[in-house]
Amino acid sequence: MEALKRAKALGHDKTLSICNVRESAIPRASKLVFYTRAGAEIGVASTKAFTTQLAALFILTLVLAKMRGHLTPQDEHAHLEALRHLPGSVQHALNLEPQIQAWAERFAHKEHALFLGRGLHYPIALEGALKLKEISYIHAEAYPAGELKHGPLALVDSNMPVVVIAPNDVLLEKVKSNMQEVHARGGELYIFADLDSHFGEAEGVHVIRTPRHMGVLSPIVHAVPVQLLAYHAALKKGTDVDKPRNLAKSVTVE
Predict the structure, then answer these.
(1) Residues contacting 23, CB < 8 A, separation 6+
(2) Exposure winner among 8, 53, 90, 189, fewest CB in 10 A?
(3) Rounded to the nearest 10 degrees, how much is the dihedral formed by the CA atoms of 220, 118, 133, 204?
(4) Is pTM, for the whole model, over 0.85?
(5) Would you give the distance in Å from CA 59 to the centre of its chain?
């Protein structure tokens, strides 16, 4: 809100807010509003608010690219088709819940966890770690997988679960190299891969396969299982998943 006030004070009159709640403070202060319409948010750490914002930003990007002449009709069609397939892929990710519950049984007794991702999926690793912290109270940190040897690798041992987001994209081979570093040091790997990624289960290596790779929309699909992991770890520990301690739905202090 302060950033918006500052921008307007500097004379920026082209303001757009992406928001879920009608008539909340930032939309009222913005010239344009893009409502995500995700429905009422009960939980503080709401998955639907995050995923619908990603979808909204994707659509906004397509519109701007089209208006600036950077989007061919063929590319527009391909991106819109991918969006139409997104609900099916998210449902597939939700169907993984029994496997994720089994992982949560192991996570509930841990005190720390490490999340790794590369490129587009590093923010999803951040989101997974944040959700685990918020609702299960397990200390979790996320790092870009390429920075693993710049410090976080020192934390890895048999008591440190390492969650890796490893979709079948151009960075997959580099992510595999990072996973080998963890495995070689006795770390226990929990890998979210795509159906067409070639990973095998092994001692200390657990794999859950989300749907086929969704390209630039893949982060939306992968956000679902990492947040389900936090949700079930919290349920196992008996914490309040809707109202985490010390947190509030709206922050009124700077």
Answers:
(1) none
(2) 8
(3) 110
(4) yes
(5) 18
> What is the C-alpha to C-alpha distance for residues 131 and 176, in angstroms, rounded to an integer?
25
Do residues 156 and 162 lie in contact, with contact meaning Cβ atoms separated by under 8 Å? yes
Distance CA(177)–CA(160), nearest Å, equals 18
| CA 200 to chain centroid | 24
User: Across residues 4-28, what is the average pLDDT?
Assistant: 92
Q: Given this model, what pLDDT does residue 201 score?
A: 79
Give 220's contacts (C-beta < 8 A, 6+ positions apart).
51, 54, 55, 86, 90, 214
pLDDT at 28 over 90: yes
Give CA–CA dist 207/143, Å, rounded. 20
105 CB contacts (<8 Å, ≥6 apart)? 236
Query: How would you classify residue 130: left for phi > 0, otherwise alpha for psi between -120 and 50, otherwise beta?
Result: alpha
Residue where the block lists tokens 């527009």: 76
Q: Which residue has the tokens 């139409």?
A: 84
